[in-house]
Write a structure and sequence with these properties.
single chain, 2 domains, six-stranded parallel β-barrel, about 25% helix
């Protein structure tokens, strides 16, 4: 027979109130954006709270209070430990990175950059595939791997950071920066993911055959190359996105807009969500762009 004295669970309502409060404080600039990364690492706490709530929390008001106190202590203890640990991490520094071509005739490049300032541009006269300078903060490192199979190369660059320490490291090193230069001498397929910060991607002098760009929170500027044909997919997050198109290249843009202001040049004709220049034909030399706009402002030039 059902127990009529069992109380409805309070964990979910209070959790939603707490997350909403944190979101508001983050939007107001009181909390750093990296706080969400740290909290995401504490997801097992949610399982503990739900289990305690089902076991004792719904039986009485005292049980609910115990569940909330335990959850608050676990979260506060974890974040305190993370703050203390972050203060003990050695300072970051600046280093040079490079990669040779190793016989590759085409290369896929994947970059994952979570927090900071990212710059990507063409490499000057050099036989290398990639050269760069990276400035890292405490607890940061660059994971660099490169393989070649049947003359096809795969270069991976990833920013590695202790996720739980992210909010506490942001204030100690606000100048995290990557300056990456890629070869102009062979076709490149680019897959770039940015997190929180600013990105300036000057691809105008590169031979890019495919581009997949996903931005996070911040400001991003992209200059697309005149080489073609090029298929590009750009998904913006929260903030500002500026796309500079190559002049005199037949272009078609498919826009999927969220809560964004999207500005398309007047030279494009519109049919629903598709914008195209008068000379666009999907053969030969052309640009096909799929743009998914998130929250903020998107300007196409």
């Amino acid at each position: 027979m059902p127990n009529s004295n069992r109380r409805p669970g309070l964990v979910w309502p209070l959790l939603l109130i707490g997350l909403g409060t944190l979101w508001l404080l983050q939007n107001l600039g009181v909390l750093p954006a990296g706080m969400w990364v740290a909290l995401a690492q504490l997801w097992p706490v949610l399982l503990i709270l739900l289990g305690l709530d089902m076991l004792i929390g719904r039986r009485s008001t005292a049980g609910t209070v115990i569940v909330l106190i335990v959850g608050a202590l676990v979260v506060a203890g974890s974040l305190t430990w993370a703050a203390l640990r972050a203060s003990q991490l050695p300072a970051g520094g600046t280093s040079l990175i490079a990669e040779t071509m190793r016989g590759a005739r085409q290369v896929s490049v994947q970059m994952t950059f979570d927090v900071g300032d990212l710059r990507v541009s063409a490499l000057g006269p050099s036989d290398n595939l990639m050269e760069g300078q990276v400035t890292m903060g405490p607890g940061e490192s660059v994971e660099q791997t490169y393989t070649v199979n049947n003359e096809a190369g795969q270069l991976n660059l990833a920013q590695k950071r202790a996720a739980l320490f992210v909010p506490f490291l942001a204030a100690t090193n606000p100048q995290t920066r990557w300056d990456i230069h890629l070869s102009q001498n062979l076709p490149l397929s680019l897959d770039i993911n940015t997190g929180v910060g600013e990105a300036n991607l000057d691809l105008s002098a590169l031979n890019v055959t495919a581009l997949n760009l996903t931005t996070g929170v911040g400001k991003t500027s992209v200059a697309l190359p005149a080489s073609g044909p090029l298929t590009a997919k750009v998904q913006s997050g929260i903030g500002e996105l500026s796309l500079t198109l190559p002049p005199d290249v037949p272009t078609r843009i498919t826009v999927k807009s969220g809560i964004s202001s999207v500005q398309i040049p007047a030279r494009f004709s519109r049919a629903g969500d598709v914008y195209a220049t008068a000379d666009f034909v999907p053969t030969g030399h052309y640009l096909e762009l799929e743009l998914t706009a998130g929250i903020g402002q998107v300007v196409v030039k």
